Amino acid sequence: MRGRLALIALAAPLALSACGDPAPTYIDQAWVRLSPNKDRPAAGYFVAHGGDAGTQLRGVLTDYALKVEMHETVEEGGVMTMKPVSSVDIPAKGTVAFAPGGKHLMLWGVNDTAISRGKMQLTFLLANGDRLLVDAVIRKPEGAAAPTPAPGPQPADNSAH
Ligand SMILES: [Cu+2]
User: Fold this and answer.
1) Would you indicate the residue range of the signal peptide (predicted)?
2) Domain region containing 132
3) Which tens digits make up the pLDDT trace of 25-42?
4) Ligand 1 mean position to 110 CA, how many Å?
């Protein structure tokens, strides 16, 4: 009798350990813009949201491109240029946007199957050991800016409600 009670007492702390996990870092709004020239790399964008603890983004992997790099856009002597970065801080409860004109991913050799499916999975490697799997929407170059139909005259809605 006594032995069985002791075992139950030992097991309880294990069952409780999953409660109260801190808010994790996550990634959303991921998309990839293909280059008009197939031999040039595509660019990738997303937003990283810091959890309760700050961390760093250490790299991005994918099975659907030959190579991925994190880049930042910098001005050197009045010329906009870009250079690879190996780590990007994601502050606690902060957001970091990879966006056109700023930080971005460069993806060489995006897989044709992924292109025809219109999305590709990216794996974001965090300094805290987390790996975040995120589907990025692939946009064709001509669709990079949302296609807006020519603003014609809107039909007036005179119907009584
Ligand atoms: Cu770049």
Assistant:
1) 1-20
2) 22-138
3) 999 999 999 999 888 999
4) 15
- Whether 160 is in a domain gets the answer no
**Does residue 43 lie in a domain region?**
yes
**Total domain count for the chain?**
1
The enclosing domain of 126 has a CATH number of: 2.60.40.1890
Task: Tell me the CA–centroid distance for residue 151 and ligand 1, in Å.
Answer: 34
The string of pLDDT tens digits covering residues 72-95 is 999 889 999 999 999 999 999 999
Residues 6+ apart with CB under 8 A from 107: 32, 41, 42, 43, 44, 62, 65, 67, 68
Instruction: Tell me the residues surrounding ligand 1 (ion) with CB < 5 Å.
Output: 71, 82, 106
Task: State which amino acid sits at residue 145.
Answer: A
pTM for this prediction: 0.75
